[in-house]
């Protein structure tokens, strides 16, 4: 068994012993010894060389991380893993290439006092590099700057929003879309009706061959869309499912599958490019929590090839008897190896892994019945063994006095959201703007789009729109309106559409599902 911590301590001890010898030699030289200092031992020279090389590597990696979050330096990589529960951090650094080592190593014939100073400086530099590496994107602590009260108010985008007429193909001008509809988006954007079906459209995803799939939850179907140049025609890929919601493509043992999270199980179907209909369904998980309450199940696959399932609570606020409720559960991609990954997540409807950092992001619907502005909805960055507070706490470690059940100090052990958002907005889906082909302006790269389904438990309606979450250094910084207009007027719950999921297409367009109109909209940028 390999114990990297013990190995690292030994290396530091070895270096520290050599450093004492160097310091003593330096003191002798400073007291009037005009003769050349004796050459350091091979062990001491090797320790100093290793430390200096590691420092160079760590500095290079930290600089690379700062310049481009999510990228890896070719010269060196600093891997930092935060142990959230223990409150400790383990750092491992690779050595730099030989050329880097040669350029940073002190010559053994240099006077001992100078060598000692250089070695001491190397220690300080290494500590600084370690600190910088620990603040890298993936390992920054999830600790927001927001107070315990209501979430920050959504900001208008620079330049505001302008009225945009929804473009509707003639074949789709019926029902809700028989009349002209106007939405608001930033200047330069256009929005069109991409398809309209039946059955309660929810989540969607693109296949590796560029086809858009979506779940029709009420009809128990998975749909595949075919773009005919004017709009998309929907066909049934699979049917007879129990409340299908989340879906994801993933390759296991050389076979590409479409995985679907149903209310009570996970089903996968082998997929070939261009396939029109599923040949057969294979149930790989049979015990997802049922019994009422939040009934949707979401799914994502991590860079570790593990499968992650989010299941909401059975209630508004209560103590669950099933640990898979209000939690994210991890499985192997064949459905084995079940374990609870994170808890205290009341209803994490949308989950998705960041394509660059490999972190699991989620949008949470917080509890009801505490007024119009509490508690905030949340964007969470979900870590292994993380406890996000529900039912005892909400938002930024706030104790829920309305529910009680724990000592208030319990909340200090929980993890706050990465970004709080307006209460009762009901965020249901998210995606990162990191397409294969950039279409939107360059400053959209890396930002997140979130679908706000809209409120029911608020005297002042909120939501019914899509927001853009601005991301800085790999963390959500603020959010602003991107597409609005489904809610008509203010102060009344008069709406004609309810956004659910946001999906970024390979061509850089943004697709928005709507379970009120059973539609998918397509947002493009024309400048």
Report on this model:
- The chain has 527 residues and is of the alpha+beta class.
- It is built from 4 helices and 30 strands.
- The strands form 9 sheets. The chain has a 4-stranded antiparallel beta sheet with strand order 5-30-29-28, with no helix packed on it. The protein has a 4-stranded antiparallel beta sheet with strand order 6-7-8-9, with no helix packed on it.
Query: How many beta-strand elements?
Result: 30
Proportion of beta-strand residues: 25-35%
Largest sheet: 4 strands, antiparallel
Structural class: alpha+beta
Distance between the termini: 58 Å
**Annotation field: number of helices:** 4
- Give the mean pLDDT: 80
Percentage of residues assigned to helices: 10-25%
| Radius of gyration from CA coordinates | 27 Å
What shape does the CA trace take? globular
Contiguous runs where pLDDT drops below 50 for at least 5 residues: 1-135
- Strand sequence of the main sheet, in spatial order? 5-30-29-28
Please describe the structure with a list of short key phrases separated by commas or semicolons:
single chain; 527 residues; alpha+beta; four-stranded antiparallel beta sheet; 4 helices; 16% helix; disordered N terminus
Q: What's the quick description here?
A:
It is built from four helices and 30 strands. Residues 1-135 have low confidence and may be disordered.
Reconstruct the topology from this structure.
Blueprint: H1 4-30, H2 42-67, E1 78-83, E2 88-93, H3 98-104, H4 112-134, E3 162-165, E4 182-185, E5 189-196, E6 201-206, E7 212-216, E8 221-227, E9 232-238, E10 246-252, E11 255-261, E12 266-270, E13 282-285, E14 297-301, E15 307-311, E16 327-331, E17 339-343, E18 348-353, E19 360-364, E20 377-382, E21 393-394, E22 398-399, E23 419-421, E24 427-432, E25 448-452, E26 465-472, E27 475-483, E28 499-504, E29 510-514, E30 519-525
Helix pairs in contact: 1-2, 1-4, 2-3, 2-4
